[in-house]
Design a protein that fits this description.
The complex is a heterodimer of chains A (114) and B (115). Chain A is globular. With 114 residues, chain A is mainly beta. In chain A, the strands form two sheets. In chain A, strands 2, 4, 5, 6, 9, 10 and 11 form a seven-stranded mixed beta sheet that branches. In chain A, strands 1-3-8-7 form a four-stranded antiparallel beta sheet, with no helix packed on it. The longest helix of chain A has 4 residues. In chain B, a hairpin with a 4-residue loop joins strand 7 and strand 8. Chain B is mostly beta strands and 115 residues long. Classes of the chains: A mainly beta (114), B mainly beta (115). The interface between A and B is medium-sized, with 23 and 27 residues.
């Protein structure tokens, strides 16, 4: 299995631009999670899906952030408009059933907003 | 009080020694506990899981859980320089919505194994 695949690996964009991060979970995993990691705040859960349905988006910082999971093999996290304070590493993770099995993380997308 | 708390370190141990990493959590009803290792610039990697009180051993790693004290630890025996990383504790807190799939992570403890 190729693991959780994220793209792009690095993204540098100007303030105000739209940014779209992509994730392909491990086949057969029915839970998908988007996390953001910074030095100051550590790993923060933004949103998670079970069977393609958003379950908890309480971690989404504000309306500028949105996430979709149109099918079991693809999810996007969009930031529009982006701001410098959005600069962080964004991780996608998947799990067959996280409460029991833990997550497998993707390699992450390092986002820099200038 | 943070929901999952770890000492940020750095924790420095000499090569060959035992490294002891600790984690406390706030929710007494929590059932599942995990340790992740994260090398600098890399993603977190699951190394241990534990669900019952007591010890669980896997190679040089031992996870210890004490639900009464709301405490989980990770011991690394015969520490190697390659063990130098940040270790994240994650807990499936009982007071979650949506079926309990959500893990809450501590901020991690940086471990340095010195030659």
């Amino acid at each position: 299995d190729a693991g959780v695949i994220q793209s792009p690996r690095h993204e540098v964009t100007e303030m105000g631009q739209e940014v779209t991060l992509r994730c392909k979970p491990i086949s057969g995993h029915n839970s998908l999670f988007w996390y953001r990691q910074t030095m100051m705040r550590g790993l923060e859960l933004l949103i998670y899906f079970n069977n393609n349905v958003p379950i908890d988006d309480s971690g989404m910082p504000e309306d500028r952030f949105s996430a979709k999971m149109p099918n079991a093999s693809f999810s996007t996290l969009k930031i529009q408009p982006s701001e410098p304070r959005d600069s962080a590493v964004y991780f996608c993770a998947s799990s067959p059933r996280a409460g029991r099995y833990g997550y497998t993380f993707g390699s992450g997308t390092r986002l820099t907003v200038v | 009080q943070k929901e999952v708390e770890q000492n940020s370190g750095p924790l420095s141990v000499p090569e060959g020694a035992i490294a002891s990493l600790n984690c406390t959590y706030s929710d007494r009803g929590s059932q599942s506990f995990f340790w992740y290792r994260q090398y600098s610039g890399k993603s977190p990697e699951l190394i241990m899981s534990i669900y019952s009180n007591g010890d669980k051993e896997d190679g040089r790693f031992t996870a210890q859980l004490n639900k009464a004290s709301q405490y989980v630890s990770l011991l690394i025996r015969d520490s190697q320089p390659s063990d130098s990383a940040t270790y994240l504790c994650a807990v499936n807190l009982a007071k979650v919505t949506g079926g309990g799939n959500k893990l809450t992570f501590g901020t991690g403890t940086q471990l340095k194994v010195e030659l």
